Amino acid sequence: MALPARYSVFILIILLALFCFAMTLGGAEFFIWPFAVFAGLTGLGIWDLTQKRHAVLRNYPVIGHARYMLESIRPELRQYFFESNLDGAPFSREKRSLVYDRAKDIEGNKPFGTEYNVYANDYAWVNHSMVPKGGPGTPPVDPKTDERLRISIGGPDCAKPYSASLFNISAMSFGSLSANAILALNTGAKTGGFAHDTGEGSVSRYHRAGGGDLIWELGSGYFGCRRPDGGFDAEAFEKQAQNPQIKMIEIKLSQGAKPGHGGVLPGAKVTQEIAEARGVPVGVECISPSAHSAFSTPVELLEFISTLRRLSGGKPVGFKLCIGHRWEFMAVVKAMLKTGILPDFIVVDGAEGGTGAAPVEFSNRLGTPLRLGLSFVHNTLVATNLRDKIRIGASGKLISAFDISGALCLGADWVNSARGFMFAIGCIQSQSCHTNRCPTGVATQDPKRQMALVVPDKATRVANFHHNTMKALMDFAEASGLSSPKEFGPEHFYLREGHRTVLPASTAVDWLKPGSLLAEGHDHPGYSTYWLMADPDTFMPIRSVQSAKDARQAR
């Protein structure tokens, strides 16, 4: 019976092993080392045939290992040899190069026109003006002091409003990022005069050493103000919130990468430094629940915001979320109307965001993309006469002047970026963040790997990236005939619908009028039904439109 052809390489190896063995016995010492090699490969082939885990190796002994070896370096082969400027996910080579150049303070101009298909259905752009502002000879932009590039955050009940840049570092925790990465980011933020969100991991010694402005993010684990049972510790919060570095407090309800998903930090990863920052025991498993324990209803969320504002001495307090069930956000808005308690800001995270590792289904198929979520939040606040009292931030794959201006057109007051600033400190998108083997020392706790990240150099790059992006944003706004990026509106942002129809966002998106959700008998598709389903006393929906109407009449 003939052996299958797929075994031919293995059979050849056996024959070569036997030949070298015979030659060795015959006194040809030269064949000792070839015999050792082929004998080892023969043993490997026998193991391949007897193991039960990999079908490929059982069918293709020895040579089947080449498949696994090539698969292991497939990302590197694509990235370095086969990727075009517009390829690469989640960020194309062109966008990564844009950040690298701006971080290194290299001129970012490119020749020969765009490589994008400007007639593609998903192509979007901002229109320019026949009477642009600015131009050669105008004073240079200083993002630290230029009020055109800054926004005051703080509502009626805020005693210490914060003047924020239009572009800041989004939430990334110490523990997810290395100590050197955190220090470089925060030092760069101080140099450039913009804010750095701590992420859920709280304020570490490296944030404090950097000296830059901080947005302290509170997740469901309440790190930095956590009781031994995992609940919120008001006394610990009040003590830390007095830190003058902390300019705002942000409650994380959900995030774009994994909305509705908690997390577990294994005890082996809870080092002395991480335990110090998070307020947890060293070496003990640390759990972040899926939901908060400090509140369970929309009204309780707002009362919690009021408590944090009081304990922090009047600093701006808000919340971050990726939009999910629309009635839940509308329930919070109804609770604002009911209690009179308002957050100072709301950060809308898009489902396309995500520095943290997450289950594939969560990353790909859960949560609302930024443009849709952002316009929904903006519309809901406008239609309830609350928009002028609450600032809106946006995050989710925003790194260029066009990305920022697009978000501003759709309702944002400012923008946060995580991966953009990761690129600025050396990230090469190897997507090995969760393995502790980051090749550039950005997303690892391996002390030897993070030594590769030289803090002074990368801090300068962070500041350069921010400064050059703000300059580009100002140039972009002036080319559109605007005096400031804050003047961008939906009429400036254009979308293509099909091959023939071109619409500005002011037409392509439904924009609600002030107070329209408070009027009787309103009928706004995508809004009215969910508004009737929303209850300020619970996140659960009123199950039908008719029962919602009955409930409203009863009140």
From TrEMBL:
Keyword Cell inner membrane present in the record's keywords: the answer is no
Instruction: Please list the residue ranges annotated as the Glutamate synthase domain.
Output: 165-481
Organism, by scientific name, is: Roseibium suaedae
Q: Which Gene3D superfamilies match?
A: Aldolase class I
Q: Among its keywords, does the record have Membrane? A: yes
Q: Report the family membership.
A: Belongs to the glutamate synthase family.
Q: Which Pfam families match?
A: Glu_synthase (PF01645)
Q: Name one GO molecular function term.
A: glutamate synthase activity
What are the TM regions of this chain, as residue ranges? 7-25
| Biological processes annotated in GO | glutamate biosynthetic process
Q: Which UniProt keywords apply?
A: Membrane, Transmembrane, Transmembrane helix
This chain's protein is named Glutamate synthase (NADPH) large subunit
